[in-house]
What does this fold into?
Amino acid sequence: MNWTKLIRETHRWLSLAFTVAVIANIVAMITQKPGAEGGQDQSAVLVGLLALIPLIPLLFTGLYLFALPYVARWRRVNAPAVGSEQHP
It folds into this structure.
């Protein structure tokens, strides 16, 4: 399997996990009762932090995928042209 394809597929699955974590965070915030005891407050914060788990690798895979076309263009410009070799 190609590295780029693997990173792209990982990025897709991480975005799905991040979306689920954000939805769980919204549900936890909506169902939280105002003035509730500290235990429920703390669990809502932990659910909010749960969204950071897929977000961190999502950042790195996204940056890699963002940079791919620029790196490919840079390599293409700096590559020696085929057939332009000079023989003494």
Observations:
- The radius of gyration is 23 Å.
- The helical segments are 3-31, 38-50, 52-78.
